[in-house]
Design a protein that fits this description.
The structure holds two protein chains of two kinds. Chain A is α/β, with parallel strands linked by helices. Chain A has a domain of 177 residues: P-loop containing nucleotide triphosphate hydrolases (Rossmann fold, 3-Layer(aba) Sandwich). Chain A is built from seven helices and nine strands; from the N terminus they run βββαββαααβαβαββα. In chain A, strands 4-1-2-9-8-3-7-6-5 form a nine-stranded mixed β-sheet, sandwiched between helices. In chain A, strand 6, helix 5 and strand 7 form a beta-alpha-beta unit. Chain B is an all-alpha fold. The radius of gyration of chain B is 22 Å and the shape is globular. The N terminus of chain B is likely disordered. Classes of the chains: A alpha/beta, B mainly alpha. At the A-B interface, helix 2 of A face helix 8 and helix 9 of B.
Chain lengths: 259, 252
Amino acid sequence: MSAPAPIEVAGLRKVYRQTTTGEAVTAIQQLDFRIEPGEVVAIVGQTGCGKSTFFDILIGLEAPTAGSIEIGGRTPYGDFDGFRGRIATVFQQDRLLPWRSALDNVRLGLEMLGLPEAQQVERSREWLARLGLGDFLQAYPHELSGGMRQRVAIARAFAVQPGILLADEAFGHLDEVTASQLRDEFVGLARANGATAVLITHQLEEAIGIGNRILVFGKPATLLADVRLDGYGADDTALLREAIQATLQTNRIDPRLLQ
Amino acid sequence: MTPAAKRDSDLGPTGLAAILGLLAVWEILGRLDVSLFLPPVSEVFVAWWGLIRDGTLFQAGASSLAALVKGYLLAAVLGVGVGLAMGRFAVVRYLLDGWINALMSAPLSALVPVLIALFGIRDTVVVATVFLFAFFVIAVNTLTGVRGTERSLVEMGRAFGAGEATLFRRIYLPSALPAVMLGLRLGVVQAVKGMVVGEMLISLVGLGERIISYGNTFLVTELYAVILSVLLVAIICSQLVQACERALVRWK
């Protein structure tokens, strides 16, 4: 895994100009926070609150309108090539290449890192096996179930051994049992590898089950609440919910924002 | 139905029955002597055998096939190349889109006299006609394939750090391949059309020239024999390209 580095978000703002109307749309109002290396963070917010835009800037696909995201002191947008292999994403849909086998899909990120072919195959095999797909190396995506496809996508993300792992509503389209199982595996693997993990979800319940910290985004994105979950047990869901509601109330925020 | 079953030949028992039925009707109508231009199909086959035995068909066919292969390969290479360039570079697309659309819907046979003026009455005209007939459908299908690449897959590639060249090679190109192969298959049928049209208009060589010659001299059975030969060439070419398609696109 690449060296862990903190994610520093300072005065971040993103305004889009709509291509059709030319109208300015604010996706991110203002964000300031810091994520320490190895933290597992859930970002919660309504659909369309700018969570995905935040990821796009974090990955370096978009430049901020104002402010910055720095990872270890460098900006992903300005140093796109330098960040290759340091951040990997699991998307809302599996986004596997339909013309590639499971093995070759996992290899994709490693090809971009320019690893020797034998090493690509070896490492892809390893990660697929770790995600329970050792018998499906040569299967094409259309031959796999939704849950299995998302497992391939998870293997693809972990195979590049990134310091930062992102999940963008990655488990929302699966049935509840599969979703929570995969989410737990994702977080478990991230922890085991000492990686920072940031997961986006629109459900507070899901966020509570994820990690040590919840960031609540408003719409357009501002930080409404920053709740640390350390000290709460796994069964303290009700307690946590109360704590989060209380935080929202002291900030005079309507808790219904999260329904 | 399994994918393997779906890939069996399109010509099932029903299709075969339809063809045999049509041949039977043709034979009966021919025997009833409905028209000079509808001889019994059995006589057509006899004439066909005659043309094969005296070498006419091979001589004309060889000339036709040479022009077909040259024109089609040129159209395939340039068509795919232009289609990819149009798909990848907006400038090329803006530059060529109008031309391609206009020429694609134009009656291309009308251009053959221009080709004759350009190249003289030579078999080069046939090659050029084959090219013209096949090029546009190949280019347009390739373009459609590149443009039809899922945005979400492109974004995924970017998120994994792909630059423009890598995106093109690893995502756009394989994604466009089925459409490219479809273009090549439609293109080869167009190419056979172009071959016959070109040969008929220059009336110098090939199967097209035989069609004109037999048509003008009322050798109707021979005429049908040549038409059936052209049909056979078109079917075989299309099947060949389809076989390549199946070998290359195994994931659909």
